[in-house]
Design brief:
Elements lengths: L1 H33 L9 E6 L7 H8 L7 E7 L5 H11 L6 E6 L8 H10 L8 E5 L9 H6 L9 E9 L5 H14 L15 E5 H6 L2 H4 L6 H11 L4 E12 L4 H18 L1 H30 L5 H29 L3 H5 L2 H6 L1 H17 L2 E4 L2 E4 L5
Parallel strand pairs: 1-2, 1-4, 2-3, 5-7
Antiparallel strand pairs: 4-6, 5-6, 8-9
Helix pairs in contact: 1-11, 1-12, 2-3, 6-15, 10-11, 10-15, 11-12, 11-15
Length: 392
């Protein structure tokens, strides 16, 4: 029992630190949302890699034409003119006024890296000469009207290497797997914050000056890579250029998934992390292993002692404390994200219960993902299978 008490005390302490981090995240979000935007709106190029006709694609792409930004272009890039996304893109374009320049680019099949990265490399080579800022957004994101202006504004500060938002999954029909995916992903979102040195770029919502992109030779550094965002994060880190997290650029990703899709998605994220950022993968493995051993092992311990007629008040109390700390972190984080997402907060509110109750299962899934990543580097992404290579 004393061994359990010892490790349970460690998990409780880590839970307290995690909750404190949640309050820091919420405080940062509130402060940033209240801060006036810098008057920095140079001509920007928004690059949107697309593959397949995914759910909500038309609404996602339409939102890019509705930005409160004075002058920008949108480059939609696909690997084949036969991609089913092309028809959707063309339909969206026909409905939009000519005030925003737009083009569809055909990148061709990738031969030396990930298809998405290949598409980005092709698009970057064809941007408008007026462009001073490159902006990358995923096709499953649905940015709000102030997204582009908010994402570019931090680049007014010369010391900033890049500005980034992050995704927040909002289930539409609901379901266990969809809510668990949202809870699983939320833990990553709240890892971002005021510490620019520890932030990372998310490829689905990132802005970088064209001059910085060119100076750091990112287009060539992308060659052979599967992960666009981890590569950009690594290059900026090597150049000691900070990454500014923009809470207003948290973007909603609407949709649902089944259990198989959830496992594939979460495994892919941890495998990519294992290869491109092993310093982040190791804490996930150790932290989730410790938590699962104590929490789920503690449930088994309490059950066995209850069946044997032995006292279980102390271990049960410790488990309750652990659960309450995690639920409190989920609540604080969720309320902060409600502020950031604004109009989508109504849809978001329906998932609050899942974030309060499912977080232990999300930790269990993280352990499974981390263990899987330890033994496999093969991923499937948008119908294409890759074998990851950790060489820079």
């Amino acid at each position: 029992m004393w061994v359990f008490y010892f490790f349970a005390a460690i998990v409780i302490w880590l839970g307290i630190l995690s909750l404190r981090g949640g309050f820091w995240f919420a405080s940062y979000v509130k402060a940033q949302l209240a801060k006036p935007l810098a008057n920095y709106t140079p001509f920007a190029t928004v690059i949107v890699p697309c593959r397949g006709d995914e759910a909500g694609l038309d609404a996602n792409l339409t939102s890019l034409f509705q930005q409160t930004y004075p002058s920008y272009e949108i480059l939609f890039v696909v690997d084949s003119e036969n991609d089913t996304a092309v028809e959707v893109i063309e339909q969206v374009i026909k409905k939009q006024p000519d005030t925003v320049a737009r083009r569809i680019l055909i990148a061709g099949r990738a031969t030396d890296g990930g298809q998405k990265v290949h598409n980005l490399r092709a698009a970057v080579a064809q941007i408008d000469q007026r462009s001073e800022v490159l902006v990358f957004v995923d096709s499953d994101a649905r940015p709000r009207a102030n997204w582009l202006r908010s994402l570019v504004a931090p680049l007014a500060e010369a010391a900033v290497g890049a500005a980034s938002g992050y995704r927040w999954f909002i289930p539409e029909k609901g379901g266990f797997a969809s809510h668990l995916r949202s809870t699983w992903n939320a833990a990553i979102a709240s890892a971002l914050g005021a510490n620019r040195k520890s932030n990372f770029c998310w490829g689905g919502s990132t802005a970088i000056r064209r001059a910085t992109f060119k100076q750091l030779n990112i287009r060539e550094r992308w060659r052979g890579s599967v992960s666009d965002d981890f590569t950009v994060t690594r290059v900026l880190g090597e150049a000691h250029l900070p990454i500014h997290f923009v809470p207003a650029c948290l973007v909603a990703s609407f949709g649902d998934c089944d259990l198989a899709e959830l496992v594939e998605f979460s495994n892919r994220q941890l495998k990519i992390t294992r290869v491109y950022a092993p310093h982040l993968w190791k804490p996930v493995l150790l932290g989730s292993a410790l938590f699962c051993l104590v929490f789920f092992g503690g449930i088994l311990l309490v059950t066995m002692r209850a069946l044997q007629g032995l006292s279980f008040a102390i271990p049960l109390s410790m488990l309750i404390i652990i659960f309450v700390l995690g639920a409190a972190k989920g609540f604080v984080r969720h309320r902060a994200v409600e502020l950031a997402l604004g109009a989508e907060s109504g849809d978001l509110h329906r998932s609050l219960a899942a974030h309060l109750l499912l977080w232990p299962l999300a930790s269990l899934l993280y352990l499974y993902n981390a263990l899987t990543a330890a033994f496999s580097r093969r991923i499937t992404w948008r119908g294409i299978t890759y074998e990851l290579d950790s060489r820079p």
